[in-house]
Amino acid sequence: MSQRMQDEKDKVQTGNTTSVLFIIDYAAKTHVEHILAWLRDAEPCWPPQPQYDDSLLVFLPLNSKRISRQAKQQVNAAALSSAEPATLLVPLHALPAITDTGKQESTTYLRSKAQRFVSNLGLLKQASHWDATERIELVGDSATLATLADEFERQSSAGSGADTLNSYIAAKARLALDIAERKLRGRRYKVPRQVAQKLKLRPALRDAIDAMASKTGTSAEKLWQRANKIMDELVAEPNPAWLDLLAAFTKKMLSMGYEQELATRPEDIDLISRTVDKHPTAFLWTHKSYLDGMVVPHVLYQHDLPPAHTFGGLNMAFTGMGSSGRRGGIIFIRRTFNDDELYKLILRHYIAYLLENRFPFSWAFEGTRSRTGKLVPPKYGLLKYLLDACAASNTKDLHILPIAINYDLLGEVADHAREQAGMKKTAESLGWFVKYYRKLRTPMGRIFMDVGQPIVLREPIESDDFDAVAKVAFQVGVEANRVSPVTVPSLVALVLLGAAPRALSGENLSRSILPLLDWLSARKTPMSSDFDISAPEHGNAILKIMLNTGLVSLYEEEPVRLYSIKPEQQHAAAYYRNTIAHHFLHKAFTELALISAENAQDQPLDAFWQEIDLLRDLFKFEFFYTPKDTFAEHIRQELELSVSDWETSLSNGSSNARELFKASAPFVAQGTLRQFVEAYWVGASVLCKAPANETIEKKAFVSKCLGYGQQALLQQEISSSASVAKPLFENCYALAENRKLVGEEAGDCSESRQQFRQQLRQLLGTLDTVKARALDAATRHE
Q: How far apart are CA 491 and CA 577, in angstroms?
């Protein structure tokens, strides 16, 4: 007999309780038979009867949705009506044996999990693997009928919760068993139960639907019919069996082309653990791949942390994926629902319910996969609904954890390159998934998951306060960027693109990378362990994969080995470079600003800071910035690491700017920013060719830029095919609109458009100067 059962017996023998009623939660007939046999074996110490009979048992099928609907999830009324107030109600449940979570998730193991899962759902009449050695009897905390009745009365007086005592007891029994199960099996199985039913009982939701009925003239009955359909589509139904299955599935998916172990830091796991234990939590992660949505659940499961409800697009809920995803905790939401007030209402109350009960959330805060490698401007929709729900439920101390997900190499980059060139995105489907699955077999290195410092909202903020919402979103972006590691492919791409079209020998490539590694180390920038020169095997293996996939080209004619990026691979290489461009942004800005100060007739220090401001404004739709004062301080610190009194030196004359520039080596502006400047120059050229009084819509502008960009590339007015990219032209349009060069407020802007183009042409000239000086410095060392 278990100690837990003995504790419950002691309650009966030492208290005022005279009888006991067992509430059995089951999902299959075999579960009931096992529990009955177990009870009879344990019975002799139990008063008041020497033998058990059915009058002592209440069957509560809560786990199976199919059975629960038939039973309406209510405790047997007859058994309760005859029970005395002092009757002790004891919840019981039978679990499969706990497996070793550290064992290999092999195909055989996956099959055994699937078999056990089917048994748990009661879909097999006989489950031979459920022998006595594989069953665990679970006993939940007990309570007397009188105590539960009093609690129900207090809840009813407050106008919330279950509508009958039977429903209340059923819910309490399931909660007690959930808590007991989590203590036994671990935190990874903390999941909500019967969410849709509980949402329907929320007085605030009922009142809101009544108000909507009065306002719209639609009957409340019809609104509830729609609400039920929305809940069926929206509400996730995670359960332990599916969490086990999905854990095996995600591990298989993530390890097909990547290493078995994800690159995580122990301090990050500890931060997550402490945060989800104490606070309502949301994980906001960067989005580069379809695999991203599996990374956070995988890490949480592997470290026995509570699963997060993950927001995903309804487009991914195709055949098979929808039902399995919901059972794994995915909330599939529509891409657009701004005009559907009922949908927004249900979503808000659903989020509020999960927040109140400390179930964490998880979603891609960018809203879509980055096609360029760098973070894209955040989508505020889900964040606003989260904040709305916090305000509605008065949820305080919300902790938002920024999570950066990165990859050594990514199979989707080729698709991203095609989309950047203006081609349509392939629609998701089962056939698409099969093709995607096959592509994952290509070796691609490691997956990295890094966690930034939490953004803490001590008090709820109003979602219609755009500035406050934007500030939160941009803080997430800044933190995610800060913890993103520099990887071998990203740094190699930055160096080779910066040198293009010139190829680099192996010696020159190393000579270019090593100073950058020193520079990164001095600034404590996160870096992949592949740069550890004492163990170069892994880094060399990644470089070999880059060569095998054609990302990097090798010309080999003894004794010469030359590395380069072919023109057709520049989009892909730029993608990897862009994943780390933010780490070099301050450095790149200082290089360009120093050359501007060098060319200034007077006040070179003022010229320096004016150029910094111009660059910051020029790229404000490309990068996440810290607040302006903080940004300026980072610029100062960047140059102080090279020359401590640089501002004094620059104030003394523009001639000192050249020496300051030399002292700031290694140089990164050419490799970091040229793609963006060239793309914007193409956009400015398109604007200058258009009549000033002609309205240019965004879609037409991007289309013209794609065409003119190809022309400029062929005529060598720009240097890289990576500069002909749809996302960059879209951001250029946003900047032009911000500067009133397009749109209703543009007016006669011919001169302003010409000035914009001239600014970019001058900036390209400055980048040429940086490149020439970097090449000169490299040549002197050869």
A: 7
Tokens of 382: 């889900």
**CATH of range 493-579; options 3.30.930.10, 1.10.3720.10, 1.10.620.20, 1.10.10.10:** 1.10.10.10
HSE of 673 in the Cβ direction (CA atoms, 13 Å)? Answer: 30
Average pLDDT over residues 711-740: 95
Judge whether 374 and 580 are in contact, CB under 8 Å: no
Q: What gap in Å lies between CA 45 and CA 552, rounded to an integer?
A: 75
**283-294 pLDDT tens trace:** 999 999 999 999
What phi, psi does 405 have (nearest 5°)?
-110, 125
For the chain, what are the domain ranges?
Answer: 3-186, 204-483, 493-579, 582-664, 670-781
What is the length of the chain?
Answer: 782
Burial class (CB in 10 A: 0-12, 13-18, 19+), 21: buried
Q: Cβ distance 420 to 234 under 8 Å?
A: no
Give 258's DSSP letter. Answer: B
pTM summary value: 0.82
Q: What is the DSSP string of 117-130?
A: HHHHTT--S--TT-
Q: What is the rounded radius of gyration, in angstroms, for the C-alpha atoms of the chain? A: 31
> What was the pLDDT predicted at 67?
37
- Give residue 334's identity as a one-letter amino acid code: R
Q: Examine the pLDDT at 295 and tell me if it is beyond 60.
A: yes
On the question of pLDDT at 571 being above 90, the answer is: yes
Asked whether the domain spanning 493-579 has the same topology as the one spanning 204-483, the reply is no
Beta carbons of 665 and 778 less than 8 angstroms apart: no
8 closest CA partner among 140, 180, 136, 149 = 140
200-209: pLDDT as tens digits: 888 889 999 9
Cβ proximity of 43 and 52 under 8 Å: yes
Write the pLDDT tens digit of every residue in 143-174.
888 998 898 888 777 656 666 787 788 878 88
Q: Single out the residue of 372, 207, 350, 226 nearest to residue 287, CA to CA.
A: 372
Residue type at 775?
Answer: L
What is the CA angle 594-597-603, rounded to 5? 140
Other Cβ atoms closer than 10 A to 514: 13
- Which one-letter DSSP state was computed for residue 739? T
The pairing of strands 135-139 and 330-333 is: unpaired
Residue 763 has pLDDT above 70, yes or no: yes
- 737 in Cβ contact with 756 (< 8 Å): no
Residue closest to 227 by CA, chosen among 321, 347, 316, 142: 347
Measured CA distances, 740 to 343, 695, 748, 751 (Å): 36, 12, 10, 12
**Dist. CA 543–CA 546, nearest whole Å:** 5
Better-scored residue on pLDDT, 33 or 621: 621
Cβ-based neighbour number of residue 432 at 10 Å: 13
Could you write out the three-class secondary structure of 52-99?
A: CCHHHEEECCCCCHHHHHHHCCCCCHHHHHCCCCCCEEEEEEEEECCC
φ and ψ at residue 448, rounded to 5 degrees? -115, 135
On average, the pLDDT of the chain sits at 84
How many other CB atoms sit within 10 Å of the CB of residue 285? 24
Is 204-483 CATH 3.30.70.240? no
Q: Would you give the distance in Å from CA 270 to the centre of its chain?
A: 18
Percentage, residues of the chain above pLDDT 70: 85
131, pLDDT greater than 50: no
Q: Which long-range contacts (CB under 8 A, 24 or more apart) does 27-30 make?
A: 27/61, 27/63, 27/64, 27/67, 27/120, 27/121, 27/122, 28/64, 28/119, 28/120, 28/121, 28/122, 28/124, 28/127, 29/122, 29/125, 30/119, 30/126, 30/127, 30/130
User: Which distant-in-sequence residues (6+ apart) come within 8 Å of 647 by Cβ?
Assistant: 605, 636
Could you give the angle at which helices 726-738 and 669-689 cross, rounded to 10 degrees?
A: 70
